Amino acid sequence: KTAVEKRDFLTLLDYSKEEILAIIEEAFKLEENPIQPVLQGKTLAMIFEKSSTRTRVSFETGMLQLGGHALFLSSQDLQLGRGEPVSDTAKVLSGYVDAIMIRTFGHDKIEELAKHASIPVINGLTDLFHPCQALADLKTIYRIKETFEGVKTAYLGDGNNVAHSLMIAAAKVGMDFSLGCPKGYEPDADIVAKAQKLAEETGATITITYDPIEAVKDADIIYTDVWASMGQESEQQERLVAFKDFQVNDQLVQHARADYHFLHCLPAHREEEVTASIIDGEHSAVFEQAENRLHVQKALLKKLLS
Ligand code: CP
Ligand code: NVA
């Protein structure tokens, strides 16, 4: 456990196109052959400062299927929740376990944890990024389209953590990406600039627009996420008003390709960001997408830990 060996997974910005594609490829193999005891005797600590269904269950199950063990640690139960410094938590856990997965609020907190841990730290969602989700999104899109080249993914709604990671993922693998959002809910300008620079290298296009129809025009994939993320509950009412034109519904999808697929990281709010007709309809791939969290994270754990 030396600093030289350790590799974190905080954002896809730190991973090359080749590394990302290799994780996706390995995930397809793990889907075929799920039980592989390559992490025997290894433990993953999972710290949650926010709720989770998919991230918790997929990481815990994934570690078991790879022969290892996962510990669910709610921040309410950890001394971290009573004010123990992140740096001390990082150093203590580094002495017991082989990797840490954390879901938290500020991205600076995960950076602090990674800085002081001598073991890999995996981002299970921060306010800024959700890179494990983006890996699952890429695997799902690849299974559907069998390529990223010439594929257009349109994201509708809040320029949030999921949008940031999906945009970076698209730029890395060379997939066209458009984001439609209301004024005031744009993605982080610095992240957009980074994605646009990456896209120049891979031949992808990154478009940000305030027009939902322009965003979904001829899209192969339409993606949305909740309008109020965890930690934004008090803004729920004003966001319902601000985002109303960005709902994915039967009218909006008319502008996409006839064979479009619908994705959502879940959990979803039916009749808010997406109608039931779409998410429960024949174009939806959201449950395959959710299952892919398991396969891609196992591939990631294998890469970082075995
Ligand atoms: N998509 C996702 O991360 O789901 P959970 O919040 O249930 O983990
Ligand atoms: N943007 C959402 C994603 C949940 C998986 C949130 O941060 O709450």
UniProtKB/TrEMBL annotation:
Show the GO MF annotations. ornithine carbamoyltransferase activity
The places in or outside the cell where this protein is found are: Cytoplasm
Q: Residue limits of the Aspartate/ornithine carbamoyltransferase carbamoyl-P binding domain?
A: 7-142
* Pathway participation: Amino-acid biosynthesis; L-arginine biosynthesis; L-arginine from L-ornithine and carbamoyl phosphate: step 1/3
Q: Taking the first listed entry, what is the main subcellular location of this protein, grouped into a coarse class?
A: cytoplasm
Q: Any idea which positions bind L-ornithine?
A: N161, D225, S229, M230
What are the Aspartate/ornithine carbamoyltransferase Asp/Orn-binding domain coordinates in residue numbering?
149-302
Catalysed reaction(s) here are:
carbamoyl phosphate + L-ornithine = L-citrulline + phosphate + H(+)
Q: What Enzyme Commission number(s) appear in the record?
A: 2.1.3.3
Keywords attached to this Swiss-Prot or TrEMBL record, sorted alphabetically, are:
Cytoplasm, Transferase
Q: Where is carbamoyl phosphate bound in this sequence? A: S52, T53, R54, T55, Q79, R103, H130, P131, C132, Q133, C265, L266, R293
The entry's family comment says: Belongs to the aspartate/ornithine carbamoyltransferase superfamily. OTCase family.
In terms of NCBIfam families, this protein maps to: orni_carb_tr (TIGR00658), PRK00779.1 (NF001986)
Q: What does this protein do?
A: Reversibly catalyzes the transfer of the carbamoyl group from carbamoyl phosphate (CP) to the N(epsilon) atom of ornithine (ORN) to produce L-citrulline.
Q: Which HAMAP family match?
A: OTCase
Instruction: Give the protein name, as stated in the record.
Output: Ornithine carbamoyltransferase
